[in-house]
Amino acid sequence: MNRSGPLALLHTSPLHIPVFDALRDEDHQGLELRHMVDEELLARARREGPAAVAGEVRAALDRAVADGARAVLCTCSTIGAVAEEAGAGIPVLRVDRPMAAAAVATGPRVVVVATSESTLEPTVALVGRRPAPPGAPYRSVRCWSTGPGRVSRRATPTGTSAAWRRPPTRSPTPTRSSSPRRP
Q1: Cβ distance 120 to 143 under 8 Å?
Q2: 132 near 110, Cβ under 8 Å?
Q3: Under 8 Å CB-to-CB from 137, ≥6 apart: which residues?
Q4: Residues 6 or more apart from 17 whose CB is under 8 A from it?
Q5: Mean pLDDT for the chain overall
Q6: Long-range contacts of 106-113 (CB under 8 A, 24+ apart)
Q7: Global pTM?
């Protein structure tokens, strides 16, 4: 492995580039970053599932290796597991792995909040695979919100998981009832 090469970052949105450049500038000035952006990876993974983009992810990782990357950070939680499992010959880390480890180590309840539904299942699976501290059960509560607004919640017993989802929007169809409708 080339320890002096750049760190490649696999993004599914160009919005991540300035974020990771700023993080690098805070603590690792001089570290060379190589940003690879492929928005279609996320679009297709949302439509067909993360496994559907395994070939394209592997090709992106192969390009990073050919360009001399010493490691790759996948900044998309939806395809992170696919990237880690690709066998690129260099370390590949998904951006949410350290978060999952810290969350499970912090306490008995883990809440996952995702801004994209496609991120929910891979992140909950990652948290579920992390070993809890000895003698400390935890529960994973899955959440999804499309942004500001109402979010519904279902409580679950310890050791299980539930889904929080934004309630569907109601159409503004007028009703003939004289009493107000209750949700």
Answers
A1: yes
A2: no
A3: 108, 158, 159
A4: 11, 35, 37
A5: 77
A6: 107/136, 107/138, 108/132, 108/136, 108/137, 108/138, 108/139, 108/158, 109/138, 109/139, 109/141, 110/138, 110/139, 110/140, 110/141, 111/141, 111/143, 112/140, 112/141, 112/142, 112/143, 113/143, 113/144, 113/145
A7: 0.72
Residue 87: what are its φ and ψ, rounded to 5°? 65, 55
Tell the burial category of 112 from Cβ atoms under 10 Å away from its Cβ (0-12, 13-18, 19+). Answer: buried
Give the angle subtended at the CA of 138 by the CAs of 136 and 142, to the nearest 5°. 170
Residue 119 — φ and ψ, nearest 5°? -85, -25
What is the tens place of the pLDDT at every residue in 38-90?
Answer: 999 999 999 999 999 999 999 999 999 999 999 999 999 999 999 999 988 99
The single-letter code of the amino acid at 6 is: P
